[in-house]
Predict the structure.
Amino acid sequence: MKISRIVLLAAAVAISVPAAAVAQSKKSAKNAQVKRGEYLVNSVGCHDCHTPMKMGANGPEPDMTRMLSGHPQDMQVPPAPASSGPWVIHAAPLTAWSGPWGLSFAANLTPDPETGVLRDFTEQQFIQAIRTGKHQGQGRPILPPMPWPAFKNMTDADLKAIFAYLRQIPPIKNKVPDPVLAGAQ
Amino acid sequence: MDEATRPAQSDIRKRRTGRWGAMIGVALAVAFLGGAALARKPVSKSPPELLHETGLYADVERHQIDPQHLEFSPQYPLWSDGAVKRRWISLPARAAIDGSNPDVWVFPVGTRFWKEFSFGGRRIETRYMERQGDGTWRYATYAWNEDQTEARLVSEKGRPKAFDFGGGRSHFIPSIDDCKSCHRGHPAEVLGFGTLQLSPARDPNAIHGEPMPAPGVDLGYLVENKLLKRLPRALLKKPPVIDGATPAERAVLGYLHGNCSHCHNDAGSMRNLGFSLQHVQRPARNRAERAIATAVGQPVRGHVPGQAPDAKLRIEPGQPERSVLLRRMSSRNPLVQMPPVGTVVPDDEAIRLVAQWIRDLESPVPSAEASGKSAQTK
């Protein structure tokens, strides 16, 4: 082997090894972020409303085949009973909520390109949406019972982790019904 | 002292130079560290409880404004349910706005803005912005008392029913989140005080246009008084004017700039929508007004609750009733309305003029943005 070839080979190795290390490091950081996001989503109760329930041996449990896909599009809900006394909020069956604001449905958080509510969100808009309680951080109000006033206290790093996790879960096509404001029901 | 023990002149010079050097070094270090600390130091920790403590007034009970502050009026005012508004800016002594990017002015630390809202001849609220030492803006709102002698800080959550419009509608003093959701849609955060809004070539047909208050704060005034620096000279020689095909189109595009471009612009967090209603000073592609290029004949993205199946374009030439932009600005359903905050009463005059402009747009329009000015009025 000529010396020039040896030099070239050494140079190629010298360049490619650090580049591969950097790429590996970035991939590892991304994985850690996604894992953190999964941990948070599983801990702060996102599934309670955004994953439809099914009846199991021990009662209602999240139907993980429809994970975080929101209120099922084929589930029609009758008008909620009138509020009386201390009963002001009704849920059916945790993906549809009725209260003084009207009727709201849990959104499809999966990355489905047609029906996922976050499909046009940037990471910055997701953070702003949680901080301000407004769609894409600047638009229409996010309706109750979405607990954004509590989640707004999360750090940017945690909200970014949740967003990163939600971007890579399995997409599920499910067109959630439009909300109905009080007075229009 | 003999020659042997006397220090050489060169040594003395060196020592003196060394001492001076050390002193200058220490002085520079102190100045640098002090300056850095000053730059980081917030102007103050929290908003004052009372409006007059922000420094707006020379005499609050007589509503006499401190003459150091400048009253101004943007040529395309934001619709605020018919409120009569007054606005003031205050810059720190010897400080100036950096206008080198004419679409995103940079305001010096310590800049203050006030905007007073009156309904029915009574002051209801005054909003306040102040640039902090760390570069962020602080927002606060103050509600006026019954006697109109003072305004007190409102909770960060805002205050409903601040003024009754009748028909179940009332003025809502915005929450700080509301303030941020709008102001932070544009990199400058300051809305209504920029190159187009302060152009000396004011639009005589501006919708809800206001007379310019003394002393006549516009681009020329700011530059002459060294309050605005590094503004491109071309903008002084040829003041910015919206390139409308007709005076009516100029007024409509100005209205959209003043009411919608806070969020719908190419520089802020909503830029991924590809929908800008901002008049930009930097040469745009093909010199097209961005509102024409990104709205006329362009399909809506996403889905609005209750969206009619026949409403598919942001603006459909000749078809105001099918144009989503007009539908949303006509609505006050909180899930549909535009703007999404700050108004509960539709702007009937603007709706009429925008509808007429859409009706007059020729059809069909080239859909590609690259086609330049994609619509012409008849």
Remarks:
- Residues 30-55+63-74+89-181 of chain A form one domain.
- The two ends of chain A are 82 Å apart (CA to CA).
- The longest strand of chain A covers residues 53-56.
